[in-house]
Amino acid sequence: SLRRLAAILPAGADATVIGKRLKLSTQLALRLDVLLAKEPAVDVAGGAKAWRAGIYHLGNGLYADRLLLAVDAAGDWRAALALARSWTPSELPVSGGDALKLGLKPGPRVGALIEAVERWWIDGDFTADRAACLSELERLARSE
To answer: How many CB atoms lie within 10 A of CB 45?
Structure first.
């Protein structure tokens, strides 16, 4: 399996070169690249909040693979793996369209605001609903 291959390769190895040499599909080479990446680090010791953030960023399958490659890390990796197999992250409840409805013009500022709301939403462990995210978006838009 790809995870077994990643386990014997050094972290940060060039997955593109390895993929070409082994004649992996582009999709498998990209997946191998994520498995070998040092960042984002899988925070096993961070508890359920950190696990959910990792699952959100990497997706359930890649998070589980990265977790299994880091089983020597401190923390309850079995509980983190169970969460990766059972919890599905929801989508960010706001989008660039919501920023445009506030009267902002399309451009990099809208993307930056949505990224800031997303970081706030993740830091709050995904508990903020659409109304709270819209309120945070408005607050951030006014503060700039």
So the answer is: 12
CA atoms within 13 A on the CB side of 21: 5
Q: Where are the alpha helices (DSSP H) in 13-107?
A: 15-21, 26-36, 47-58, 60-69, 77-86, 96-101
Give the confidence band of 38 by pLDDT, cuts at 50, 70, 90: confident
Residue 31, CB half-sphere, CA atoms under 13 Å: how many? 17
- Beta-carbon contacts of 128 under 8 Å, excluding residues fewer than 6 positions away, are 93, 120, 121, 136
Half-sphere exposure of 34 (CA within 13 A, CB side): 19
Q: What is the CA radius of gyration of the chain?
A: 18
- For residue 144, pLDDT over 80 is answered with no
Note the Cα 56 to chain centre separation in Å: 4
Q: CA torsion sign, 98 to 101 to 106 to 108? A: negative
- The residue assigned the tokens 């951030």 is 140
**Contacts with 90 (C-beta within 8 Å, 6 or more apart), sequence order:** 126
* Residue-level length of the chain: 144
pTM for this structure? 0.79
Distance CA 90, CA 3 (A): 26
* One-letter amino acid of 17: V
